[in-house]
Design brief:
- The protein is 21% helix and 24% strand.
- It has two domains: 102 residues, 2-Layer Sandwich (Signal recognition particle alu RNA binding heterodimer, srp9/1), CATH 3.30.720; 108 residues, no CATH class.
- It contains four helices and twelve strands, in the order βαβββαββαββββββα.
- It has 212 residues and is an alpha/beta fold.
- The strands form four sheets. Strands 5-2-3-4-1-6 form a six-stranded mixed sheet, covered by helices on one side. It has a two-stranded antiparallel ribbon with strand order 7-8.
- The longest helix has 21 residues.
Length: 212
């Protein structure tokens, strides 16, 4: 079984003509490949990002995958649904070997979601959202997400980031408001994850604590 992964479509394609061209190329390739091998197409919603949809073309010898955000690319997802009338499924088991990747995801290009540098020995440990200790020396890894105190954009970033991608301010570990990195999807931290309300102070809590 061979898997051909076309990657994800660029969400902000309206801002860059090159992104639009690449998105069209990927969509055209997905449709052409599925038609060529007579694939059955199904769609699965991402478990961590519910507006993100994975379209999977399944044939006896080849599996073709492509992903996109319905929030930003509703037209493209509707195009595939109109073309293939895919069945919606909760889970699709995909082959891990013999993968042909047309384009790496942004997280793979930045090389920050799979590794964390140990503060003690300086070596990198593979990281999947669960590892807690360095595989080289046993030191506890820094898995605290970081936030920007300069622009206060209420966004959590990967521990490997040093400066805010929005304003350029220095990022600091979020010790109080946010959960550790193990509670986030590592891939989502590439562009930052909005901190949920449940991790922020509730209105009135500060005043109540002062009264007590």
């Amino acid at each position: 079984m061979i898997r051909i992964d076309l990657g994800g479509l660029y969400e902000m394609e309206q801002e860059e003509e090159e992104f639009r061209r690449q998105n069209r190329r990927k969509l055209t390739s997905f449709i052409a490949l599925c038609e060529q091998v007579g694939a059955l197409v199904v769609e699965q919603r991402d478990w961590n990002q519910r507006d993100y949809v994975h379209f999977v073309g399944i044939s006896p010898n080849v599996v073709i995958t492509i992903g996109m955000s319905e929030k930003y690319l509703a037209v493209q997802s509707s195009q595939l649904r109109e073309k293939f009338a895919p069945c919606a499924v909760d889970y699709v088991s995909l082959p891990d070997r013999q993968t042909v990747t047309v384009e790496k995801s942004p997280s793979e290009k930045l090389d920050v979601h799979e590794v964390i540098t140990c503060s003690k020995c300086g070596e990198k440990t593979p990281y999947d959202g669960f590892f807690q200790f360095c595989v080289r020396c046993g030191e506890k890894l820094d898995t605290l997400v970081k936030v920007c105190q300069a622009c206060h954009n209420n966004t959590a970033y990967h521990p490997a980031f040093r400066f805010c991608p929005v304003c350029g301010g220095e990022l600091t570990p979020n010790l109080y408001d946010g959960p550790p990195l193990t509670e986030f999807d590592p891939n989502g931290l590439i562009w930052g994850v909005p901190l949920k309300d449940e991790f922020m102070d509730e209105p009135g809590e500060e005043g109540e604590s002062e009264k007590q």
